[in-house]
Write a structure and sequence with these properties.
By secondary structure, the protein is an all-alpha fold. Helices cover about 75% and strands about 0% of the residues. It is built from six helices and no strands. It is elongated. The protein starts with a helix and ends in a 21-residue tail after the last helix.
C-alpha cells in the first residue's frame, strides 16, 4: 500500500514537472509557434485560392460591380442603373404588389417602391430633353399639339 502511494506521488510529481517543462517550452517558442500557425493558415488559403480561382474571381467581380453600382434599390443604385434595368425592376415590383398571395406588409413595401422607381425612370427618360408641361411623356390631357 505504501509503495503504491509513493509511486503515485512520484508519478504526480513527474507529471507536474513535465507540465511545467512543456509550458516553459511553449513560452520560449511562442513567436515560432505563432509564425507556424499563420504560415499554415496562409498555405491553406493559397491552396484553396488556387483551386477555386475561377469562382473567387467571379465573386470578386460581382462585389466590384456592386460597389460601383450600389446595392439594388439603394440611392446609389437608382443613380447608376440603366433605364432597361429600372423598367425591369419596376415591372417585377408591380407584379409583386399585385400578387394577392403576399402579405399586406410586403405589398405595402412594394407600393412604396413604385414612386421611387417611377421618379428614377422619369429622370432617365427626360434627361437632355426640354422641360415642358405636362411632364408626362406619353398620352395624356393637355398635351401640346405638335
Amino acid at each position: 500500500m505504501d509503495e503504491m502511494k509513493q509511486q503515485e506521488q512520484q508519478n504526480t510529481e513527474k507529471t507536474e514537472k513535465d507540465k511545467k517543462g512543456f509550458i516553459k517550452w511553449i513560452k520560449e517558442h511562442k513567436s515560432q509557434l505563432a509564425l507556424a500557425g499563420v504560415s499554415v493558415a496562409a498555405l491553406i488559403a493559397m491552396v484553396l485560392g488556387l483551386k477555386n480561382k475561377d469562382s473567387i474571381t467571379k465573386i470578386w467581380m460581382s462585389l466590384k460591380d456592386e460597389i460601383e453600382k450600389g446595392k439594388p434599390l439603394s440611392a446609389k443604385w437608382y443613380e447608376k442603373a440603366d433605364l432597361k434595368e429600372l423598367k425591369d425592376v419596376r415591372d417585377s415590383v408591380q407584379k409583386a404588389y399585385l400578387n394577392q398571395n403576399l402579405s399586406m406588409e410586403t405589398r405595402s413595401r412594394m407600393w412604396d417602391l413604385l414612386p421611387k422607381l417611377d421618379n428614377a425612370i422619369g429622370k432617365r427618360q427626360w434627361a437632355g430633353k426640354e422641360y415642358g408641361f405636362p411632364v408626362k411623356s406619353e398620352h395624356g390631357w393637355h398635351l401640346p399639339s405638335d
